Structures are given as structure tokens and as C-alpha cells.
């Protein structure tokens, strides 16, 4: 019978039979794209060396994922853009002057140890790029804290090194920081544009915000983590960051310096390692902000964004257990029980 | 347009309603044979009331109820019973079915009419509805008379007619509201009468402006019936979501609409109720949307219950080359068919044929990246992500502790999942492994 012949060609599967267009690869590649402005600014300020460092990170991240998976006879997942993103983020978190083996070691730690050994994308507990960077900072403290002065000419940097704004703030205070940059307005402008020493991709706040706007527009990230993270940093800097007692700190310097903007929009929002319930994300963001400021104000390091996010990564599963979204019909049940 | 009512969360799938929304309902050809499963509803299956060789007429009961939550079945043609045996059904199970071969005469029983139907008592109405074999025609197929007989301690104050038709592609309810609005309103009035309820509502998504207009004008003389334009959002037509949109009430977890004083009935059910009470006509035909890019001529057809899907598809020009999937119902909650020799039953709202360009393979999926998209869309406020992960790992009790049984499998989570995880499949698996 004709219908029977046709019947054998019919596909049978569980509903729903239609799906949306979103894919993991599209999300990851969009995030990569959103970091393009920050990458361009890093090359602008720190010269071709910036492109070399970041490129080497990406290359070693992608290759290590590919060869790890193929050597285990698994399907290579480099097409999903997540290894590329890890490499890109690691690169943007490194100083320009690091020797070539630093990006390679960092990427191996990030991809193989932090991500693949835990089961691959979706199973990692910590943000891979940040573990890579933390490993490097602890293993090569000297190399990881040599900060070149930005040249702002797309040219190779000279040998001049300097301290980051947060480093100056910690060691020499606010007055000295303002003095180095000219006046307060110059300081803010330099911080906003990225004309200051620091990790490659963290310096240009304006470029980062441009990328963040794309992610917010596409709905790939929401305001919950970045806003609560940044707001907490701002409030704590204002309240506790001044020399003249409570509420004399300069929140703007803290907001525009260090890796806050890069961390809050692009790293703390990593799906796998942050809570997935929106309410929980606010707790997560506040935690990140608080730990950042504790390190910046009282800790041994001038900057605390990386450790703050990594510490809060530990709490993400716990937050997801404790914070539940409001279930439909749950309120009525409670009311009924009270009756 | 004024502010439209809706519920929280949900999704905006591609609707593809244009394929059939302008097609008037046409009468399907008299089938040569029908296959009538004795169980087309939720509850106890009917018991065959005929024997092989018996002659039956259109409208004759051929299966009788076996309990309170049960429903009789009727022959939709006149002819001879040629078999009573297990046949495949669109829900994927083998069900005892009565096969009748047409004598080509299409002779009907004489039905008992009630021109003064609004003077009937509530019990008389419910008996007529029960005897007509009416069940919810939106898909779930719960016996209507049972829904109209809530326990005494439950006070019902509102009836809502579900004209949301939020499933993509389907247009059966849409066409009924456009073409037979007056009868739907009369059906609603009968249902209200049977429940002693003063308040009637009709909820329609605003992507059916002609249906809203038709229903508004049909209900214009009824001060206690209100038409609600609803936001276009899936699953707006789910009972709980509809009640939330129209009445602002939340059916409690594990509860029923009657727990918040509401009874919801589908548009097609309202029409069937009217025909049963006014004309004594049992539920022997229904509107079926035959649609999708995999069908040559999409149509809305009045099809006799028991007609084989293959028959219906043939009357719509057949399948196109490369049709890959045939679904009974809509694309979000319908059942994929392995054979077309299954009958149209009381709950069959559509026959959807997907062509290659509409087909999504669900073979490949990856680990959950915990993006939270599913949590953002779940109309029940669940965490589908964690449910799917627990189920995948075999932690069924943990899934249950995360409100597994509040999921009604609307598929919104699977629709948005970027990792293309088979969320509904995972959830059904977990449901099958633990007791509610």
C-alpha cells in the first residue's frame, strides 16, 4: 500500500516538533564578536604585541581542545566557539609584555584542566579563562605584573613600564594617581578610553560597554549580574574607599579601573559558572562586588575581580539550590494551607 | 488595541497560521470505513455495544460508558460492523476499536431536539452531554459532563471558552469562531446554565482579529459574556495560563481549575455541546486543520470521527515530495505518527505535515550550558534545566522534588534550548520512573 511505503519514511520523535533558532555556537560566536572592540583597542594602545598575545591564547586554546578530544576519539567541539572565547578572554586578561610560553600554559590550564577534565562545556565549575589567569598569576607573579605603558599609536611598545591605576591607588594613594594623569577629568577620560596600564582587554571601558550593549540587546546576558556586581563595587568604594572616613571614597575610579567592566559583563556572566535563576544572579553579583572590594581595599593584591568571580563560582550551585523562581500556583497552595 | 491579557513568561514561536487561517471549513467526503477506538478520552474506555455483523446508523452509540469518568462512542456513518480489534491510534498506543464499513447511504438515527434548550435543568443538560459522548476537544479529551459536575464544596463562578488556539499552525477553533460564532455562544450559555454560573468569558489571541470581531458581535446581546483579546504567546491556551490571563487566578500546584472556581471549555466543545443539547446530535464529527508545508492543499475540514488520517490527507492533495513528519495535533504538543492509518478521534485538532524545510532534527544535542533560557520561559515557573539534568543522570527522585509533576509538557523549554536538548523527553522519562 502506498501509505505504508510512505509510513516507513516518517520521522517519529517526542514533541515539540519545532525549535527556535538559538544555538550554543551562535551565542558563543556573538560573545566573541562583542569582544572585538576591546581587542581592537588593546592593539591600538599596546601595539602588535597585544594581537600576538591574544592570538596565541586563542590558537593554543582551540588546538588543545581539538587535540584533547580527537586523541580521546571524541568529536571535536571547537566549532561551538567556546574554546575560542576562553582563549580570547584569557588573552584580554594578560599584560602585553608576557613571553610566548605564558599564553600557551594559561590556555592549556584553562581548556584541559578547568574545562575538559571536568566534562567539557556545561560541566566546568570555574570560569576556564580565569583559572588560567589565576594559575599564571600565582606561578609567574613577576611576569604577570609587568605593565607596559600604552602608546596609543598601533605601534610596537617601548620598554617603558608603569603601575596600573589600582596599583598606584593602593601604594601611593588617590592624590598621586590624579597627579600622574594630570587632573581628575583627565584621569576619568583616560580610564574611560583605556589609555592606562593594565591587562590588554580590560582598559578600554568604552569598547567593553559597546560589546556589552550587543549582548544585552540580544538577550544573551541580562542586567542582573553586571548591575549588582558594579553597583556593589561602586557603593563599597564610596563608603569604604576614602581616607577621610565613611563615604569619602571615589567610586568612579574604582568602577573604571582594573578588570571590573570586563569581569562583570563578560566573565561573571558565563552561563555555566554563574547561577541560572535571576534572583540568584543578583546575590552572585553582590558577592562578586563585595569580594572584589575587600581585596582591593584590604587584600594583598591591588585588584580582586578575578578572585572574586572564582570564589563566587564555588557558590553558584549552592545559590541555585537555595534560590528558586516563583512557581505558578505556589502562592495559592500556601494560602490554602493557612486557612 | 487595548491592553491584552496574558500570563507570565512563555514563548513566541513562529506561528504559520497563514497556511490555513483563511480556509473556510469544508465537509470531508463520506469515508468508506471508519475505525472508532473505544477510548478517545481520559478515563475508563467505553465497552463495545455492538457485535460484528451488526448494522448501525449515523449517531448510534456503539460503545457505552463503563464508569463516571468515561464517555460513549458513536458511529459517524451508517453501515456494518466488520471488526472489533486492537488498532493503532494517534497517541501511539494500540486501542480496541470498532471498524464499520459504510453502506454509502449515510442514514442517521432520528435525534431528539430541544428547541427550548435553555429551559432544561442542569441535570438534563449534563445527561444530554454525556450521552452525546462529548469530551474536551482541545486535545486532552476529558469527559465534558464530568467537568460540569464539580464536587459540591467547589463553587464555580466563571466559565471560560478557550479560543486562544496558541499552538502554531492550527486554525480549527479560529475558523469555528469566524463561521459559527452564534452557536459557540449558545454552547457557552448552555454550559453556564448547567453549572449555574452567571459569568462567561471567551479568550482569543489577538492574531485572530476576525474571530474576536465575530465573537464580540455574537455575544453583543449577552451582558454577562465578555470577549478577552489575549496576547499572542504560547502556551496561552493552556488551561492554567488562560485562567490566569482572564481571571487573574492561579490554579494551585497539583490543583484543578475548579479549585479557583473556573471551568474552561474549548471552542469546539462549546459547539458540540450546543449541537448535542439543541439537536440531540452526538459527537461524531469535528473540525480538523490539515496543514503544514508537507501537505499539498492545507484545509480546515469537518471530518467524521473514525476517518483514517490517510483518507483526510488524500482529500487535501496528499503529501508533498519530501514530507518528513506527520503530527496529530500541533507542533508543540502533538504526537508524531509512524503510520497514517490511524483514525481521527474526538481530540484530533489537526493533522500537521512538516516538510524538510520545517523539520528540525532532534538527534544531536549537547550538555546543558545553564543559560537559563528555559527558566525564563517556563509558564509554570519550574527549572526545566535541572529537571532535564536530573533525569539524564537517573536522579528521578530529585527531579520529583523539583516539582517535576507540575510540568504539563508544553515544550517551551525545548523550543528555546540552544543546546537542543530533548527537554520534554527527559521530563517524561522522569515522570515514568517515579510516582507522583
Number of domains of chain B: 3
How many separate domains of chain A?
2
Could you say which overall geometry of chain A the principal axes of the C-alpha atoms support?
globular
- Tell me which protein chains meet in the greatest interface and how many residues each side has: A-B, 46 and 72 residues
Provide the residue-averaged pLDDT of chain B.
Answer: 94
- Report the C-alpha radius of gyration of chain A, rounded: 23 Å
Largest sheet of chain B: 6 strands, mixed
Number of helices of chain A: 17
Oligomer: heterodimer
Characterization of the model:
By secondary structure, chain A is mostly helical. Chain A has 2 domains: 24-144, no CATH class; 166-322, no CATH class. Chain A has 17 helices and 2 strands. In chain A, strands 1-2 form a two-stranded antiparallel sheet. In chain A, α3 (36-46) runs antiparallel to α11 (205-218). The longest helix of chain A has 24 residues, at 48-71. Chain A is globular and about 75 Å long. Chain B is α/β, with parallel strands linked by helices and 436 residues long. Chain B has 3 domains: 25-111 and 282-358, Ubiquitin-like (UB roll); 113-279, NADH-ubiquinone oxidoreductase 51kDa subunit (Rossmann fold, 3-Layer(aba) Sandwich); 373-433, no CATH class. Helices cover 26% and strands 20% of the residues of chain B. In chain B, strands 1-14-13-17-15-16 form a 6-stranded mixed beta sheet. In chain B, strands 2-8-7-4 form a 4-stranded antiparallel beta sheet, with no helix packed on it. In chain B, strands 11-10-9-12 form a 4-stranded parallel beta sheet, sandwiched between helices. The longest helix of chain B has 15 residues, at 181-195. Chain B starts with 24 loop residues before the first strand and ends with a helix. The model of chain B has no long low-confidence stretch (mean pLDDT 94). Classes of the chains: A mainly alpha (339), B alpha/beta (436). Chains A and B meet through α1, α2 and α17 of A and β15, β16, α9, α12 and α13 of B.
